Amino acid sequence: MSERATLRGSRLGGTSFEDESGIEFAPRQRVNYDCANGHQFEIPMAAEADVPFIWECPRCGAESRQRDAEAPESKLDKPARTHWDMLLERRSIAELEDILSERLELLRAGAIGPAHLHRSRGSGSRTGSKSKTA
């Protein structure tokens, strides 16, 4: 019973007994956004924060644009370099064809690759006799 007596009179987890006296908040700014679907909302941000021009609408999830700002200049992105692009920087097409033919010869000869791809070297049959003798 004494354990319950200490909890009496306070809602567990419901009320904070801390007050905001003596706390100095960081300077803030309110940024207004307009949604493509007609919604308007504002987001509080730190005064020194880099404010994004585009923000997701909290009501519908659509793209919203900052109300009193100009769109940032679009950056010219370089196209992504693929594995093939990097390979062509090191080898020519003729060199790649030579390497491919060499590797195919080694694969067919059984020098490289998994065993199930190798051609049998012994008799002409790949499978053994499956018939039973009685």
Would you kindly provide a written description of the structure presented here, covering whatever features stand out?
This protein is α+β, with helices and mostly antiparallel strands and 134 residues long. Among the domains are: 27-70, Rubrerythrin, domain 2, CATH 2.20.28; 83-113. It contains three helices and four strands. The chain has helices spanning 2-7, 83-90, 93-109; strands spanning 28-35, 40-46, 54-56, 63-66. The protein has a four-stranded antiparallel β-sheet, with no helix packed on it. Strand 1 and strand 2 (40-46) form a beta hairpin. Residues 123-134 have low confidence and may be disordered.
Helix/strand layout:
Elements: H1 2-7, E1 28-35, E2 40-46, E3 54-56, E4 63-66, H2 83-90, H3 93-109
Antiparallel strand pairs: 1-2, 1-4, 3-4
Short structural summary:
The chain is an alpha+beta fold and 134 residues long.
Q: Under the CATH scheme, which architecture of the domain at 27-70 would be assigned? A: Single Sheet
Structural class: alpha+beta
Strand content: 15-25%
> Would you tell me the overall average pLDDT?
81
Helical stretch tally: 3
CATH topology of the domain at 27-70: Rubrerythrin, domain 2
Span between N and C termini?
87 Å
Shape: elongated
Order of helices and strands: HEEEEHH
What summary fits the major beta sheet?
4 strands, antiparallel
The radius of gyration is 36 Å
Measured as a percent range, the helix fraction is 10-25%
Reading off the top of the CATH hierarchy, the class of the domain at 27-70 is best stated as Mainly Beta
